[in-house]
Write a structure and sequence with these properties.
It is a single chain. By secondary structure, the protein is of the alpha+beta class. The chain is elongated. 40% of the residues lie in helices and 26% in strands. Helix 5 crosses helix 7. It starts with a strand and ends with a helix. It has a five-stranded mixed β-sheet, with helices on both faces.
């Protein structure tokens, strides 16, 4: 589970002929022009977003629709490359490195974490684009989001305000990484993380596949930390015990949200039951009927609505992986059925 990560760096270049320099950079670094908002959304750690300004153009004129270049080359190697290429060097009249970017996990509503970090670092709370324009090379812009940090984020995924902090990205990143759990804990309504037990029961014994499905979703949605995995016994009825594989999950999410995610994985997209996932919190079983008040429908319909919701939140790679695993589950079931028929 990622609680804080770095983002792109920002490089400002000036030239009396903006279009000429943009064209040279596009060709040299195989980059295409795109709006700033789109570049931020598509950027990853270690990327650089390049602004090309006219000689006397003010940074304040930059907006989300301003055309920029996005490259996967880090800002320092990029500057070295430009200096060593004479045709670029001759067309750059001024270069300025902007602030670095950090993104921090902040479960909704998120304002508590923002305010605590602001006070601790005497930060300026302003919109993202303003922070990018005002920041210096040894400053940091910190954004906050409730979304998983393992993927690209759009500006709509971020809190409206960001923090501009007078500290370099490497130093601030190390400090926030050490304190991230503390900040996240203070954001929680009850001020504590929760320990869950997830019992997996598969009639056909496909535990390795079910384990891979659930861990894929836990990691992709950054639900929490897996503390342990053991074989155990469940008691669905008096004097009846069945073997189950148990996962111990440490999460900031509330029990109802975790239960919804598990229900989404119990069925395939056609509504066929794949597995039983039972969730326990504080030694009590979390029942499906209480996860959403006022819903008068059957379990399959509820589970399929959750499946649609959470599948859309996964990355494309994870959705493809789950599809492959579910296909294998069906094949294993058919094989087991055939073997049972042969043994009759």
């Amino acid at each position: 589970m990622i609680l804080v990560r770095t983002g792109p760096r920002f490089l400002f270049l000036r030239n009396s002929d903006r279009e000429q320099l943009l064209g040279l950079l596009e060709k040299e670094y195989s980059s295409t022009r795109k709006p700033l908002d789109q570049a931020i959304e598509e950027s990853s750690e270690g990327d650089t977003i390049i602004f090309v300004l006219e000689k006397d153009e003010e940074k304040e004129q930059i907006s989300g629709s301003t055309s920029v270049l996005l490259t996967d080359i880090g800002s320092s190697p990029l500057l070295v490359s430009m200096i060593n290429k004479k045709h670029l060097q001759e067309n750059i009249e001024e270069a300025e490195l902007g602030p670095g970017l950090l993104v921090m996990k902040a479960p909704p509503p998120g304002e508590t974490i923002l305010e605590k970090v602001r006070k601790e670092y005497d930060a300026l709370s302003i919109p993202l684009k303003e922070a990018i324009m005002k920041g210096h090379s040894d400053w940091s812009v910190v954004c906050f989001t409730g979304c998983p940090l393992s993927r690209s984020l759009s500006t709509s995924d971020l809190l409206d305000d960001t923090l501009l902090i007078k500290k370099s990205v490497p130093d601030l990143y190390q400090e926030l990484r050490r304190q991230a759990v503390k900040y996240l804990t203070e954001e929680l309504e009850e001020g504590e993380w929760r320990e869950f037990k997830i019992n997996i029961y598969d009639y056909w014994g496909r535990y390795n596949l079910q384990h891979e499905r659930i861990t894929t979703v836990i990691e992709d949605l950054e639900i929490g930390f897996i503390l342990g995995e053991i074989w155990s016994l469940d008691h669905p009825f008096v004097l009846m015990s069945v073997p189950v594989f148990q996962i111990q999950l440490f999460s900031y999410m509330n029990p109802k949200e975790v239960k919804r995610i598990l229900m989404a994985l119990e069925y395939d997209e056609q509504g066929k039951r794949l597995v039983d996932f039972d969730l326990y919190f504080q030694k009590k079983k979390v029942e499906w009927g209480g996860v959403e008040k006022g819903r008068q429908t059957n379990r399959i319909d509820v589970a399929l609505s959750y499946r649609e919701k959470y599948m859309s939140m996964l990355t494309a790679d994870s959705r493809e992986k789950l599809a492959r695993l579910e296909q294998t589950l069906h094949e294993c079931e058919e094989k087991e059925k055939c073997e049972q028929e042969e043994n009759k």
